Amino acid sequence: MSRQTYYITTPIYYPSDDLHIGHAYCSIAADTMAKYKRMRNYDVYLLTGTDEHGQKIERVARERGLEPQEFVDGMVVKIKDLWELMHVDYDGFIRTTDPQHVTAVQEIFSKLYEKGDIYEGVYEGWYCTPCESFWTESQLVDGLCPDCHRPVEKTSEKSYFFRLSKYEERLKDLFREQKDFVEPASRANEMINNFLKAGLDDLAVSRSNFSWGIPLPFDPDSIAYVWVDALCNYITALGYPNEPEKFDHYWPADVHLVGKEIMRFHSLIWPALLMALELPLPKKVFGHGWLLFEGGKMSKSKGNVVDPVILVERYGLDAIRYFLLREFPFGSDGNYSTEALLKRSNSDLSNDLGNLLSRVVAMITQSFPEGFPSEKDFAELDAELTQMADGTAVKVEKHFEKMEFSLVLEAIWRLIGQSNKYIDLTTPWILAKEEASRPRLAAVLYTLADVLRRVSVWISPFMVYTPEKMREQLGISAAGAEIEEELSSWDSAAKAGLYQDDFRVQKGKPLFPRIDVEAELAAIEKLDLS
Ligand code: MSP
After folding, report:
1. What is residue 304's predicted lDDT score, i.e. its pLDDT?
2. Distance CA 226, CA 231 (A)
């Protein structure tokens, strides 16, 4: 039987500047979800890429004295390096300058033009270059872009229009009938109240006063509006329209993951374009919140400490991936601070998880260096911890399916916290003093080792290096590749008692060294990051 597919996408990023931790947030979330689904044996396709056309890119390139293509070629190398560093393990990376994408977008425009869904006109209105968005006078807020609050430019240019209005009723039906099409629900309401209720105007889908874009096949002096060019990536990357095999295999997408400010493009314009192309719609668009810096926008002057490369170098990838998905509920905004990152790393990772592992491994090394005896005296307390772990297995899956990453981690850390308490309650150091309590001691330490084995699996979608380090210390890796593979599998974590008596624990380095927060904050303040 063929495996069920899971197609998940990130937005394609503008390569106009170096990406910051806010961009990495979205990719890490998508990658975590993809890793989870791969562990659950889905046939996963994670797509990311770069949105390389448009006025903004053209301007930035020219400012740097480069041709746009030359400029984006350089930026894309850095973006790919970043995803490699952060273990964003994508299956496809699309660039909107890829010849295959360019041809496919031209074919899409031809189809819509021939069908009468695109017609010629003149666009008179406002344009926000940073957002690459058209706005009408009434949509502006205090004369500024309603999304980014920056100045807009008046433009009057020949333009082709897409009959968005023709699809208004079908979009309304979509929002009425498929309640989970847009998540979280608050964002669906925003779309209904802010846009659908007022009615949809036709959308300008071409530009003619600059040239960095995809020329329209029926009018080469006009180029495709960058948002339409970009949205099409989700299907052109799969080979639409000329290579149906991969496209039919993965489309429709299971989820488009996007930041909240680009929800309108993904949940209104994109479905309408797909309706016009007579293609199935994505199953879901999930709009995540923003990482806010110093209460609002991120600034370059303070900015480099939120350069993901520096964060990974100083604090390690796993701590960062953990922090981003633990600290902020995925649908909401959150204030990023390095202080909060360091504190979480110390409390959750060094203290809770790291100490639990090192305590358990140290106690087993001391009392059972040759493995556990078969006689064990299990008690009520042990069964309670094991049952809690069974319950955690259920919660982890439930929250993962809803992309509630912070709740997945909260459930796992509650179990870790309970395991630390269980050590205090069972006092293994006292049990170790009496030969007669060896069977009881074996039961306690075995129960803990078995919980840690399960934890190492559940954290695998989030953390890249830690699960393996845990399995090394727990003696699972040394038991051979086959056993290690089996005990790294998702399903193994749902079952209690798979830790084997003859595993030999191995003391190792602390998983997460404690950071002196004050000293570190002072040190990064002094870094020359220019
Ligand atoms: N190129 C468009 C997307 C086209 S998708 C067909 C674009 N690019 S972007 O580079 O400006 O943003 C890419 C994504 O990064 C967006 O989803 C945006 O919300 C996200 N983020 C940018 N800054 C962010 C934060 N500070 N916090 C969280 N996400 C942020 O828009």
Report:
1. 44
2. 9
